[in-house]
Amino acid sequence: MLTASELMRRPEAIVLDCRFSLADPGAGERAWREGHIPGAHYLHLERDLSGPVATHGGRHPLPDPAALATRLAALGIGRDSEVVVYDDQRFAFAARCWWLLRALGYRPPALLDGGYAAWLAAGGAVESAAAASADTATRACAVPAVEGYRGVCDREQLIALQAQSATLVDAREERRYLGLEEPIDPVAGHIPGALNRPWQAVTDAGGFLRSDAELRAHFGGLLERKPLVAYCGSGVTACVDLFALDRLGRSDALLYPGSWSDWCSYLDSERGG
Known about the structure:
The chain is of the alpha/beta class and 273 residues long. The chain folds into 2 domains: 4-134, Rhodanese-like domain (Oxidized Rhodanese, domain 1), CATH 3.40.250; 155-270, Rhodanese-like domain (Oxidized Rhodanese, domain 1, 3-Layer(aba) Sandwich). The chain is built from 11 helices and 8 strands. The strands form 2 sheets. Strands 2-1-3-4 form a 4-stranded parallel β-sheet, covered by helices on one side. α8 (174-177) links the parallel β5 and β6. α4 crosses α10. The longest helix is centred in the C-terminal third of the chain and has 12 residues, at 259-270. It is globular, with a radius of gyration of 18 Å. The termini are far apart.
């Protein structure tokens, strides 16, 4: 985690802009073109940080490891590079990037506390896409050999873990968890046995990470349970909970990447949806 003022003193860091909107998939890139932290490269949730969508697997499957490593290498990012990631949605998308790199064995990126708004509030400089295109091209680095993602489980593995008394953490908003509303997926509800710990509670209203004491209070007794698996709608915002859990010493918590969108795709097909 870095503050805006700390980032200003880290000119050697490679900065990634992960702003995105589920309602308007092009909004984040447009915002980047209009203004971003100088030198920041844009990574799109669906093009760069997700793989192709299929019948099952969720709305945002994990990207092919080699493809992601190649994309990162083109930006000069190797396994040990110092990387800082930001968004403007309380880590919703920046944490996905953090998790992907960590799960592939890269040096975990730092998240910019408070996101892009904090950078602006601190008086940080802003660069447009036009200015960025005039800069010297990024020096690409060698593509490291990467294997599969660590710390994941698919639907079948999750069912097996449940039989071993695994604790499931549903990171979605309470109303979606309770099945009172479902604005995206075809079925409302949650995976049986899951406990709700909304990802928004990890930060305050300004998008700043809450204190460790507040985070411990948020997760409560879940911190002592093993195995621990987090999911959300499509494996994106669950990474916010996983980031907080990692900070509290639970780096062993797993991600169910397909999340509810994968789980309910089987329910929907069973009922003929």
